[in-house]
Amino acid sequence: MSSGQHSRFAPDRGLTGRMVTTMFVIGLLYVGFTGLLIVLLRGAWPLIVLISGGLFVAQFWFSDKITQRAMGAREVTPEEYPQLHGTIDRLCALADMPKPRVAVTVTDMPNAFATGRNPERAVVCVTTGLLRRLEPEELEGVLAHELSHVAHRDVAVMTIAGFLGVLAGVITRIALYGGLMNGRGRSNDSNAALAMILVPLVSMVVYAASFLLTRLLSRYRELAADRAAAQLTGRPSALASALTKVTGQIAAIPSEDLRRAQPYNAFYFAPALSAREAASQLMSTHPSLEQRLEQLGRISAELGR
């Protein structure tokens, strides 16, 4: 999982270290949580193992399809979107990386995201709202940012880390139901009662740990992607301009549309938040706009020297 191993995107040791740590802790939580459920709900253990293993494989293997469908993205051809494909072709040649599939979501919210378990299975998607609002060099900066996520392989780590919280809830409901059904009419009422108390508690702890880990990794990976994109294109000011424009325009999108998009904020170029929400986000998936612009300003000064 070495960062930027197969491309010319600047490697980021800080990102690699955080991804390895996140995966290690997530793995421990996953094994520990499943093990505890098996101990507490002995009658339901085959169901727990089957569901946890099956859901994990399905989520990892089909993450690109699941995310695309959830966000309403449709793959597009070079004939349909020549400028979009042309920009991605140039950036992939510059970065020496395989070209991902290209998709578009029809929505007024200006945004972009990347998904997929590896560079060969990746999809980069932009919204029609983004294409309509950005100048060519701004679009290039946003696409370079998304391609760096693919090259650094942090999309796969985010997919797995975010999935654990969802899995905790699903397994808990099914395991409790299965365990209690199997325990009916037996003399293990005290075990069933203990399970009913402990399993939801452990599930909440696992969800909270997964939530914190994904937030911490997500904020760092966005800064890493900004850095890598600015260094690859040599135009940090274009990316800064795109960031400012996109963040300002998102704040003006109707709150109902923003709420629909918010579950996927960790994957977006800029979070789907109103101006008030963005200011009060202590646990945001993204660093603040000020942080991102300040970093791009420093890179611009370095490139100038």
TrEMBL record:
Pfam families: Peptidase_M48
Gene Ontology annotations of biological process type: proteolysis
Cofactor note as given: Binds 1 zinc ion per subunit.
GO molecular function terms noted in the UniProt entry: metalloendopeptidase activity; zinc ion binding
Source superkingdom: Bacteria
Membrane topology, from the record: Multi-pass membrane protein
Active site: E146
Necessary cofactors: Zn(2+)
Transmembrane feature ranges: 20-38, 44-62, 155-180, 192-213
UniProt-listed Enzyme Commission number(s): 3.4.24.-
Binding-site list for Zn(2+): H145, H149, E222
InterPro entries: HtpX_protease (IPR050083), Pept_M48_protease_HtpX (IPR022919), Peptidase_M48 (IPR001915)
All copies of domain Peptidase M48, residue ranges: 80-297
Extent of the signal sequence: none
Assigned keywords, A-Z: Cell membrane, Hydrolase, Membrane, Metal-binding, Metalloprotease, Protease, Stress response, Transmembrane, Transmembrane helix, Zinc
One cellular component (GO) term of this entry: plasma membrane
Enzyme category, top tier: hydrolase
Subcellular location(s) per record: Cell membrane
Family: Belongs to the peptidase M48B family.
Name by which UniProt lists this protein: Protease HtpX homolog
Organism per entry: Kitasatospora gansuensis
Lineage of producing organism: Bacteria, Bacillati, Actinomycetota, Actinomycetes, Kitasatosporales
Gene coding for it: htpX
